[in-house]
Amino acid sequence: MHWVSNIIVVLLAVGGVWVARYAASDRYWRESAIQLWRRRRLALVVIGIYVFVAILDSIAWVDPASEANALTSGKPRTVIDRIFAPEAFKEASYSAPLASVSFYGNQPLVHPGKHLLGTDLLGRDVVYRTLKGARVALLIGGLTSLVVIPIALLFGVSAGYWGKRIDDGVFFAMTVLASVPSLLLLIALIMALGKGTVQVCVALGVTGWVHFCRIARGETLKLREADYVAAARALGVSDVNIIRRHILPNIAHLIIITFALTFTGLVLSETILSYLGIGLDGSWGQMIDQARNELSRTPIIWWNLAGASAALFTLVLAVNTIADAMRDIIDPRTRREV
Amino acid sequence: MGTPLLTVEDLSISFPGDGAHRVTVVDRVGFSISAGETLALVGESGCGKSMSALAIMRLVPKPGRIEPGARIAFEGRDLLTLPVPEMRSVRGARIGMIFQEPMTSLNPVTTVGSQVSEAIELHANISGEAARNRVLELFSLVGIPDPKSRYAAYPHQLSGGLKQRVMIAMAMAMRPKLLIADEPTTALDATIRAQILELLRDLSAKTGTAVLLITHDFGVVNEVADRVAVMYAGRIVEEGTRVELLGAPRHPYTQGLLRSIPKPEARGKRLEEIKGAVPRPGHWPQGCRFHPRCSSAFAPCATEEPARTVVSATQSARCHLVAKVVGEARP
Amino acid sequence: MTVLSADALLEIRDLKTWFPIRTGVLKRVSGHVRAVDGVDLTIFPGETLALVGESGCGKTTVGRAILRLLEPTGGNVWFRGQNLTGLSLEAFHPYRRQIQVVMQDPGSALDPRHTVRDCIAEGMDAFEIGAGYEDRTRRVAELMGKVSLDPETMWRYPHEFSGGQRQRICIARALALDPALLICDEATSALDVSIQAQILNLLADLQAERRLTYLFITHDLGTVRYFATRVAVMYLGRIVETGPTERIFTDPRHPYTKALLASIPSLDPARRSTRPVALGDVPSPERPPPGCHYHPRCSVRLESCASVDPPVIAFADGVCRCVLAAK
């Protein structure tokens, strides 16, 4: 299945270039991007690093038979795998950061002083595992948002613009979903769909679209009454074109901010799911879950938790900071006129 | 006449602009109002008239700033140097203010009676029944029919005209010496506007309150004002009595404004227009700010700012052409 | 009784727009806001008919009903002899080219995210006028010249223009479809006095050049006297008087028209207007007074005015909806 993720990386790259070119050509987005860079340089760099690591962890290929060794033959290995060579870069069990002996029993390590954040129960390097978690986090946050937002937009804008029956239907669905405690619904869905990346994404998506749908609907209701929409109708512009030309561009700022906030919400939700044992493999949530037992030991084994929490905290903080700045920059009402 | 009730001197207000420098929106404005008289401050949008009025109450919104050197003397005291608690007692008790939009100036969740009563209790030492009676008195003063039942009404139950009367009642509650009215009738219907203007005229006569009326409508000016000051791009370009300014304006801008108002005699002919548009603060032209749009502009207009030329005891204009004409008329 | 004038451009008979008031848990309809309550209007080609009234009288609603921006509840609308009533929105679509609108607030009538070129070309895109992007851009440049805007600025955004310039953009946008009837809905009310004069001059020039017909909806009577050929006065959803402009101003028939005219402040320093003639406040259209809607504020009302709907008295030059006009 590694070629699926390779293709996705290529698609993302192409999509990224296309978005960048569109943003550069439109003055509003170009200026917003420049403003964002000026105000939140550090956060953008941090996120860039995370994205870079995640991409590195998505590009995988199988070594041809001639170069394979016994440990790695036939399995696709990502770039991160190749850098860290985890099959060889491991210990027997726990070891403290930069230690030269194992945590229990003080046995000499295979790679003394090389594990920056120590090793976990199975002797795997914690830095390696933390880096691997980046891909999972971006997958959960990013991919799910990319699916949730268009669906929420479709329902929300339709409900807001055409009202009446469509609005009643969407409103009913939204209210029903919002009345069920989302955590319980999540658990139920995952138990029904089974564990797995796609299943968890779907479950999170089903419980996540309501919030943005409501916002999109409200904003559309408001925009529908704008004078320029009335003018467009008087000019003979069709409903679909009104939505395309007037409504969607004027809620684009909301979409972007919602994307950022949904992203962090999803990443944190996955952490909770891991706590319940139904999260994704290799995620930071899983590492934190495993740390539960470790914390109650004496002396405390803290490096597993530290690595995952620090990575999680930094990512969420960076995205939230950018979302806050973006809210001021791209909301047409608070923008200072050029 | 004695000293005027209010004297504004060298008032300048600036706002932050792009980069380090600030943008001036009101530039060395000065005027005075005597007790009991009504001065109309007229101009189009962006000329700085509302901001000047807010400065008197020290309510200029941040990040705006009154530049040092300004002086606002009210009843002999400089308002700009008063400590805040004293200024607060001036506001509402000695100077009242009413705004353009009565819909948004009233609290929608309390009755209008209690809002006016609150204003009274804040400044006077009365409360309860005495305050309520005072409110009913005020409602009669401002012509609100059936004051007792209106006392318990909520703002949304009242029409625009009635709401504006409530605002006037609140502003007049402590019998202030000066009432500042910022476009008080712009948002009202024509027939209601006439009623409110008549009310303002009568109130001023009855209570001796001076009125500073901010407006863009010369019709309103004619109905209510004793004296008029015309503002353009942050400066006062002409002042005079109502009769002088409406009958024989000297500044080309005032003349242009009055001529561009559609009159029945102009039917079938093109309206006289002032070409171009009002320059935005920060983009004011050099020299006389009106010169690019002025059909009478000549040599000094593009380079020198005109000084104030006194035309008569009561009329003055800031214009090179007027200065030239007046200079030539003198023997 | 419907009498269709043979040469009328637009004819409206008994137009009604009633908005239901829903109360209670079950949202039962407890009554109606009769925003427009039986309006008759005739507009002839080449004239400027002013529809005047205060807020809540329904004049803007009449304009929106003609444009099918909201659906009338009753009555008929004819355009060039064609009955537009009951046409579906798709069937009405071609008529949108002929009837256009300029609205009150140019700031909100232009999408802040579109360039001026796109704003003006929007109607042309919808009706596929012109041979493509380049051709439409050329037409936009032409139109901008007609409304005294620099065509070079077509790539800028509306917020970079002044209020008066934005209104010119809106006018250019409406003209792009080459309409026969232009509805000006308070088109000059939000502008400064000196800009109003510019826009009125522009509208007059365009009317002469393109033989446009205007429905000029406004509350500003001063402009009406200068600009309009005929006037229709509305009060609480009904037309109370119509007639040629000069006659309306010099010899009004209806008491409300008289009160409205008396409330115009004069600009003559020698003359301040007399006391206002209309008493009390404009009632809300949700609860119009019974009988003649104006009777509570009327200084010459009779006993019968509180219960009997006033008849529409026809004169040679207009109508008047008042019992006293028959005398």
**Level of helix content of chain A?**
over 70%
Beta-strand content estimate of chain A? under 5%
> Helix-strand pattern of chain A, N to C?
HHHEEHHHHHHHHH
State the order of secondary-structure elements of chain B, H for helix, E for strand: EEEHEEEHEHHHHHEHEHEEHHEEH
**Biggest sheet architecture of chain A:** 2 strands, antiparallel
Describe this structure in words.
The complex is a heterotrimer of chains A (338), B (331) and C (327). With 338 residues, chain A is an all-alpha fold. Chain A has helices at 2-25, 27-39, 41-56, 79-84, 126-162, 164-179, 182-193, 197-224, 227-234, 239-275, 284-295, 303-330, and strands at residues 60-62, 76-78. The longest helix of chain A is centred in the middle third of the chain and has 37 residues, at 126-162. Chain B has helices at 49-56, 84-90, 102-105, 112-123, 128-141, 147-151, 160-172, 190-207, 218-224, 242-247, 252-260, 320-329; strands at residues 6-16, 22-33, 38-42, 65-66, 71-74, 77-78, 95-98, 178-182, 210-215, 227-232, 235-241, 308-310, 316-318. In chain B, the strands form two sheets. An eight-stranded mixed beta sheet of chain B has the order 7-8-9-3-10-11-13-12, with helices on both faces. Chain C is of the alpha/beta class. Chain C is 29% helix and 24% strand. Chain C has helices at 59-66, 89-92, 106-109, 116-127, 133-146, 163-175, 193-210, 221-227, 245-250, 255-262, and strands at residues 10-23, 28-43, 48-52, 74-79, 82-83, 99-102, 181-185, 213-218, 230-235, 238-244, 313-315, 318-320. In chain C, a hairpin with a 2-residue loop joins strand 9 (230-235) and strand 10. Classes of the chains: A mainly alpha (338), B alpha/beta (331), C alpha/beta (327). At the B-C interface, helix 7, helix 8, helix 9, helix 10 and helix 11 of B face helix 6, helix 7, helix 8 and helix 10 of C.
Keywords:
heterotrimer, B: 331 residues, alpha/beta, eight-stranded mixed β-sheet, five-stranded antiparallel β-sheet, globular, C: 327 residues, six-stranded mixed β-sheet, four-stranded antiparallel β-sheet, 10 helices, 12 strands
What is the strand and helix layout of this fold?
The complex is a heterotrimer of chains A (338), B (331) and C (327).
Chain A: H1 2-25, H2 27-39, H3 41-56, E1 60-62, E2 76-78, H4 79-84, H5 126-162, H6 164-179, H7 182-193, H8 197-224, H9 227-234, H10 239-275, H11 284-295, H12 303-330
Antiparallel strand pairs in A: 1-2
Chain B: E1 6-16, E2 22-33, E3 38-42, H1 49-56, E4 65-66, E5 71-74, E6 77-78, H2 84-90, E7 95-98, H3 102-105, H4 112-123, H5 128-141, H6 147-151, H7 160-172, E8 178-182, H8 190-207, E9 210-215, H9 218-224, E10 227-232, E11 235-241, H10 242-247, H11 252-260, E12 308-310, E13 316-318, H12 320-329
Parallel strand pairs in B: 3-9, 3-10, 7-8, 8-9
Antiparallel strand pairs in B: 1-2, 1-4, 1-5, 5-6, 10-11, 11-13, 12-13
Helix pairs in contact in B: 4-5, 4-7, 5-7, 7-8
Chain C: E1 10-23, E2 28-43, E3 48-52, H1 59-66, E4 74-79, E5 82-83, H2 89-92, E6 99-102, H3 106-109, H4 116-127, H5 133-146, H6 163-175, E7 181-185, H7 193-210, E8 213-218, H8 221-227, E9 230-235, E10 238-244, H9 245-250, H10 255-262, E11 313-315, E12 318-320
Helix pairs in contact in C: 4-5, 4-6, 5-6, 6-7
